Automatic annotation (TrEMBL):
The protein, known as: Putative Haloacid dehalogenase-like hydrolase
Organism from which the protein derives: Bradyrhizobium oligotrophicum S58
Record keyword Cell cycle present: no
InterPro entries: HAD-like_sf, HAD-SF_hydro_IA, HAD_sf, PGP-like_dom2
Gene3D superfamilies: HAD superfamily/HAD-like (3.40.50.1000), Putative phosphatase, domain 2 (1.10.150.240)
SUPFAM superfamilies: HAD-like
Length: 209
């Protein structure tokens, strides 16, 4: 269900998460690549992967790639190289979310678009050139490992709102995770939970875009 405060003229900027909002991702592909390199079943690894403080530190840019992969090597119990970890890590990207490119192009004619994603430097290096045309719709892209802050922390939203330069309540934020939506609402933004591109389309229609 869309927020009741979405109506024409209610926003001065639109802010989009990237994963599963703009770019489709599939973690199963990551585990499958790592398992193939390690010579084990993907199921052997899936239950061992945890988004812990090392993972969060990697997303904030405070944990190096080498340290993150070393942690994974121990956590997952597999002895594969950093290059093999990296190859599997970047296999997460599937392609643009269906229909999102046209929606972004249309929205950009009416309002400035921004992106805000929890992500790490290897992913940034991979997706930035691959999806350059899609990402070109955004005036600025805020990435957790570049700004040192990640959703759903209040400091992260405050940083992004200040950088955009409009009041929080005039920004509509799109994300696929409830915890990030809750964080945005607590920081004063309008927020739309995205389960499919259709949710983005309905929100834009409500905004008169």
């Amino acid at each position: 269900m869309l927020p009741s405060d979405l109506r024409p003229g209610a926003a001065d900027a639109l802010l989009f998460d990237l994963g599963r909002v703009v770019i489709d991702i599939d973690f199963v592909q990551v585990v499958s690549r790592w398992a193939a390199h390690a010579g084990c079943a993907p199921e052997h690894l899936a239950g061992r992967f945890v988004r812990d403080e090392i993972y969060h530190g990697h997303e904030r840019g405070t944990v190096s790639d080498a340290a993150f992969f070393a942690h994974l090597r121990t956590r997952l119990g597999i002895d594969i190289s950093d290059a093999q970890f990296l190859e599997g890590w970047n296999a997460i990207f599937v392609g643009p979310m269906p229909g999102i490119a046209a929606l972004l192009a249309r929205a950009a004619e009416s309002l400035p678009l921004y992106a805000f994603s929890n992500t790490n430097q290897p992913h940034i290096a991979h997706f930035s050139p691959v999806y350059a045309d899609l990402l070109g719709h955004f005036r600025e892209i805020f990435l957790s490992s570049s700004i040192g802050l990640r959703k759903p922390d209040a400091e992260a939203y405050d940083h992004v709102v200040q950088a955009i330069g409009v009041p929080a309540e005039r920004i509509v934020f799109f994300d696929d995770l409830t915890e990030n939506i809750d964080g945005a609402l607590a920081s004063g933004l309008k927020a739309v939970l995205v389960r499919s591109t259709g949710d983005v389309a309905m929100a834009l229609e409500a905004l008169g875009i």
